[in-house]
Specification:
85 residues, alpha+beta, two-stranded parallel sheet, 2 strands
């Protein structure tokens, strides 16, 4: 038996993929510079305390202090981070 589809009809799986692609383009393709400016304005000149829940000198303490030293470069507004045990 031969099944004939109407012109323009899409299978459900293809329709879902098309909607997913359209949604992703709408979300990630939207300009986000205004949002980044708001975040940068919020963090500019601020100090963030990084609370380290282990004793000083251990492996976790060393890793947390390294992250605290360099992560401020990647946060908009470049806040300073102060590690605390």
């Amino acid at each position: 038996m031969i099944m004939v589809r109407a012109c323009g009809a899409m299978p459900d799986g293809l329709r879902r993929r098309a909607l997913l692609v359209v949604a992703l383009v709408a979300v990630f393709g939207a300009p986000t510079s205004a949002l980044a400016d708001q975040v940068a304005d919020f963090y500019r000149g601020k100090t963030i305390s990084v609370l380290i829940g282990v004793g000083a000198g251990g492996e976790y303490d060393t890793i947390a202090r390294l992250v605290a030293r360099y992560i401020g470069r990647y946060i908009p507004g470049h806040p300073s981070l102060v590690p605390q045990n």
